[in-house]
Each structure stands twice: as structure tokens, then as C-alpha cells.
Amino acid sequence: xxxxxxxxxxxxxxxxxxxxxxxxxxxxxxxxxxxxxxxxxxxxxxxxxxxxxxxxxxxxxxxxxxxxxxxxxxxxxxxxxxxxx
Length: 85
Hints:
Transmembrane segments: 43-62
Keywords: Membrane, Transmembrane, Transmembrane helix
Helix content: 40-55%
Oligomer: single chain
Strand content: under 5%
């Protein structure tokens, strides 16, 4: 951006924006799957932090969705949880 006139748009700035948008898409087309089993012996803030970090890791793609779904199935069998709608 031009420091003297920030409203001015140049062709180089336009190309830079298009290039960045190609590399970093601004739309997340697929929702991230999140599952975390809470340890009730620990404070609730631990659960919140683990949930946020798990969502971040899942949305970035570092943790496989199939692994999280397997953990969820095991927890449902262990605790006899009802099916989700």
C-alpha cells in the first residue's frame, strides 16, 4: 500500500493479492471434525484449551479425521452414549 495515499490501488498490489489468495485460500469448504474426551479430574480450562487446540490441529489437517471418529466410537461404546441426530 502507498503510505501517502492508502486508498490508491496499484496493479502490483492487485497481483500480490491474487497470488496470496491462490496460496492461502480464504474459504474453508470442509468443516473440521472435533472430538476430545474430558478428564474430569482436571480443571475446565484444560478441557477448553485442549478443545481449541484439537480444532486447530484438525482444521489444519495435522490429525486425521478417521482417527478422531474411531476415538468417538470407542467413547460411545464405553459410556453408552446416545446417537446424534
